[in-house]
From TrEMBL, chain A:
UniProt-listed PANTHER family: P53 REGULATED PA26 NUCLEAR PROTEIN SESTRIN, SESTRIN-3
Catalytic activity: a hydroperoxide + L-cysteinyl-[protein] = S-hydroxy-L-cysteinyl-[protein] + an alcohol
Taxonomic lineage from the root: Eukaryota, Metazoa, Chordata, Craniata, Vertebrata
GO molecular function ontology, one term from the record: oxidoreductase activity, acting on peroxide as acceptor
Pfam families documented for this protein: PA26
Organism domain of life: Eukaryota
Protein name: Sestrin 3
Keywords on record: Coiled coil, Cytoplasm, Oxidoreductase
Annotated localization: Cytoplasm
Assigned protein family: Belongs to the sestrin family.
From TrEMBL, chain B:
GO molecular function, one term: ubiquitin protein ligase activity
Taxonomic placement: Eukaryota, Metazoa, Chordata, Craniata, Vertebrata
Similarity section: Belongs to the WD repeat WDR24 family.
PANTHER family in UniProt: GATOR COMPLEX PROTEIN WDR24
Species annotation: Callithrix jacchus (White-tufted-ear marmoset)
Recorded name of the encoding gene: WDR24
Protein name: GATOR2 complex protein WDR24
Main location as per UniProt: membrane
Keywords (A to Z) from UniProt: Autophagy, Lysosome, Membrane, Metal-binding, Repeat, Transferase, Ubl conjugation pathway, WD repeat, Zinc, Zinc-finger
Chain positions covered by the region annotation Disordered: 580-600
UniProt GO BP: autophagy; cellular response to amino acid starvation; cytoplasmic translation; negative regulation of TORC1 signaling; negative regulation of translational initiation; positive regulation of macroautophagy; positive regulation of TORC1 signaling; positive regulation of translational initiation
Top enzyme category: transferase
Subunit structure, as described in the record: Component of the GATOR2 subcomplex, composed of MIOS, SEC13, SEH1L, WDR24 and WDR59. The GATOR2 complex interacts with CASTOR1 and CASTOR2; the interaction is negatively regulated by arginine. The GATOR2 complex interacts with SESN1, SESN2 and SESN3; the interaction is negatively regulated by amino acids. SESN1, SESN2 and SESN3 convey leucine availability via direct interaction with SEH1L and WDR24.
Location(s) in or outside the cell: Lysosome membrane
Annotated pathway: Protein modification; protein ubiquitination
Amino acid sequence: MNRGGSSPSAAANYLLCTNCRKVLRKDKRIRVSQPLTRGPSAFIPEKEVVQANTVVERTNFLVEEYSTSGRLDNITQVMSLHTQYLESFLRSQFYMLRMDGPLPLPYRHYIAIMAAARHQCSYLINMHVDEFLKTGGIAEWLNGLEYVPQRLKNLNEINKLLAHRPWLITKEHIQKLVKTGENNWSLPELVHAVVLLAHYHALASFVFGSGINPERDPEISNGFRLISVNNFCVCDLANDNNIENASLSGSNFGIVDSLSELEALMERMKRLKEEREDEEASQEEMSTRFEKEKKESLFVVSGDTFHSFPHSEFEDDMIITSDVSRYIEDPGFGYEDFARRGEEHLPTFRAQDYTWENHGFSLVNRLYSDIGHLLDEKFRMVYNLTYNTMATHEDVDTTMLRRALFNYVHCMFGIRYDDYDYGEVNQLLERSLKVYIKTVTCYPERTTKRMYDSYWRQFKHSEKVHVNLLLMEARMQAELLYALRAITRHLT
Amino acid sequence: MEKMSRVTTALGGGVLTGRTMHCHLDAPANAISVCRDAAQVVVAGRSIFKIYAIEEEQFVEKLNLRVGRKPSLNLSCADVVWHQMDENLLATAATNGVVVTWNLGRPSRNKQDQLFTEHKRTVNKVCFHPTEAHVLLSGSQDGFMKCFDLRRKDSVSTFSGQSESVRDVQFSIRDYFTFASTFENGNVQLWDIRRPDRCERMFTAHNGPVFCCDWHPEDRGWLATGGRDKMVKVWDMTTHRAKEMHCVQTIASVARVKWRPECRHHLATCSMMVDHNIYVWDVRRPFVPAAMFEEHRDVTTGIAWRHPHDPSFLLSGSKDSSLCQHLFRDASQPVERANPEGLCYGLFGDLAFAAKESLVAAESGRKPYTGDRRHPIFFKRKLDPAEPFAGLASSALSVFETEPGGGAMRWFVDTAERYALAGRPLAELCDHNAKVARELGRDQVAQTWTMLRTIYCSPGLLPTANLSHSMGKGGSCGLQLMNSFNLKDMAPGLGSETRLDRSKGDARSDTVLLDSSATLITNEDNEETEGSDVPADYLLGDVEGEDDELYLLDPEHTHPEEPECVLPQEAFPLRHEIVDTPPGPEHLQDKADSPHVSGSEADVASLAPVDSSFSLLSVSHALYDSRLPPDFFSMLVRDMLHFYAEQGDVQMAVSVLIVLGERVRKDIDEQTQEHWYTSYIDLLQRFRLWNVSNEVVKLSTSRAVSCLNQASTTLHVNCSHCKRPMSSRGWVCDRCHRCASMCAVCHHVVKGLFVWCQGCSHGGHLQHIMKWLEGSSHCPAGCGHLCEYS
């Protein structure tokens, strides 16, 4: 996915998915139309986001209180589909950006920029460039990493690992940062930074996962903003109508009756619930299931199943435009399947040995007071959020589904729950959903509208946003757990 | 009964012997439990499940229960418990939600007895009934508790907590049917084993998860709970409402709590994270642990008293893969290292001193304090035989009073209230302060002010004759004069002052300040730019006044000081940003490398060239004036300030510092200034001169000081609709989701200053109300009340 910065054509301003490039290469005359969607999200029709008055009022209250920019941005608008959650989200975000904390304000925004840049999320970068300058940041820093103090630069390594392969973080990384010296980080500062990094990596997932549109305010232009570009390929935005291509026809969806798909899912949930008592898989079986799920996530092709190109081609396309890459080092470093790195053989992270509730919370709260409570509330909120509906059905217990989503994300980061039967993931999450989950959590920048549309076609958009929230928080928690565990090990 | 007699014989025969010792395990432990014979301990963890015999000198591995080629998750234990009635019976809770019982009496190598796979999530805790042989209770992450009868294949009853995950379950030792359970959301529930439909009682014990609980072995109804909020609480459950009896604040979240046998008020705790030590607390002395065991190198995960009637042996397992036996007599006792003495200076020079009684008694022979007004008071607590630290509980308190008059501080209060520090031209300020000092009989101070005026204001401006004698003399003469005054005048100045009348002082602090023009001006400014720094205001006011004068006097002459005064003025536009910057304490940390700071510095630097040319020009003018430039005196002034500060009159030092501002500030190093400011502010606050102290804080230029009044500026308010406190912010109520304070004029939320009529209780933005009442005398809300604004 490349922003064709050098090309002067109309298409140049849009990201092109690999498939479309191929098409474009074939046929230069193709006209690309403006994105069809208006409103906060490119994936969700504007009318879906529009809310009842009371909700709007409530949202405005929240924005007035907690927004750092003081306006209703697109993220907030999309999240306002779940006001309950929105409150804890905004509150914790506000706390880490504006309230008492060990890091100075411009630092916080710069760290947010660094984190967002790992996923080339120009939406978040733009937002925080403005905030960074507003809080008195030095404009020079925005020229790139060479211009920032060594201390911030040192954060690069941990930013990189945290974003893509958090399991590689060791206590040595922590030691290197806190080692006394000119540019050392104090533990509270480090924890603050880690919380910010994890938050913005996860938020980037949400931004791409829900197709958040760039903000419409062309008047702010300070030269450091990236040109607001929609990150989604035109073929997605045009609802698949514009591009007619023979090469695609083979991989079109089979016309499945999506209604029956939903019925089938509900049926499976019901069966699982009943079966629970009867059939008990042996322990060996359980651990094989985890391994299987882990392995299988490998074959959920990174990126996009419909554009099934060899991996290398993706690598070629991953040359990032210079304006984003100035905030990061080693841009080629990306997610690598946890299951794949056989030779290093890191042990699986046993969730019960280092849980957020027992350990993570205590450590975070000790070093960066009160954020623990806010994050705790947020995690709890997202995990327990339910309206007891599934698409058209009401009064459904979705606990199982939510747990499957949450644990599947953790599974891809190598975190295993002893008390979870990973067979359930297989039963509950269809392949297209797995593709979506994997893309959103591991390579969010590759998400397309097609992926978003292809799973759970019967479900409401608000439910899909709910899925995105779950993925985001699961990812954040996974990153935090690895980072905090490393800090704990450093302390002992 | 039979059990009891066995125990006494065992103890009487001195069977329990041992020493502090530890042994290495192969893997981290999650929990430990002791056999009732106190000779064996079981250790369980993710990959360890072993029984050790406790011998006199060492632990000896007796049995490895983790058998089988491929260890299953059923063996990954979160908790283990040994039956207190049956030596052969154990139960474990597995992380995958299985409850396993073990029968050591089985002949085969595999001792696994029964498997209960009813929980869907990790089982956090298992507990045997203290007297019933076959009853086992489990609590799980899925929010359910189950009671098993070991003679049956499945659970007898299921208890649903209706809230979140269960963290601990404990059978009451005294009440046959009762058990307590603790939850992740901070609740504690009390259940009757016969009534699975609903709990007997529920209350919120902690903020955040309650990790553990323990019933008192003797006192029926005492329950200790420990939570993530770092507290251990002791509840009395016998009363109608659970009553919190004691609360111990630890330094980390509490993972386990166990009452110490035979010691009614002692309990042992270990923590979940960060802190590796085991503490034994006396719940009545909740601040210092009675004993501390520091053997472990990683968090302690399990603790158990070795014998239910022996208080001296504690066993513990830890994540550092070791098992320890601690002897109480080997424990370190923080109390011994603590300093049980307290000393406090009163405002009027009184001195109170509290110490251990023994210490005072030992030294009483040569007690030199003859000026005692009151005799030392002794407090003595009744000795408690069960209390090993009774000796420490008795202490003596002595109060000594200084001689009347010697410490009287009336002059200090008067001076503080009446001094003018800003808002007027320098000359006037000096004159005013000199007058104040003279009226209070502090001639030397008055003289100093007069001289300062002479030094820093041009001579032509002096209107009065009282300065003429020093005017004609050179600066060095003035200094000599001052020095001689210093020595002579100090003592009578102090002696003549009388003891402060407290109530009068209080009343004055309110009234006097109101008519001080300086405070009024700054207050008004402050109403508009809330949270802005006032030093800028001060500088502006000061500089303006002085400029006017200078221009009047000599229009072409630019005062050499001016460029320096202008600099902060140029920086003033930056000030509005301060609204955005974090609250006070952060400034301190930012100081070194805050980009904000350096940003403004850069601005200043860019302005510098313009200014320097300016000042060059003016310096030449000054020399032409044949008068000594004030810079010439700056050393002397600095020495003078140091002298006053050394004398103990930090008030003078700070006042001069503020009045002279830029003129002397650069000569005195930051730290000294800060030190003076903080001591002066401290003194002012002790005299409850809040207004003066705030003014000083505002006028100070030291970053560390000026942020003092930006910290803890929160004022908590209650919602006007539901009368509940509004926790997170002042204008929206969390509960009724309404804006609490609306402006009656513009109908918007008032986020800053809210003024309201005490007659009809309508109000709004200060400016709006003021404007409204200029035109109308009726209430803007239309209630018909005739509001007054004064």
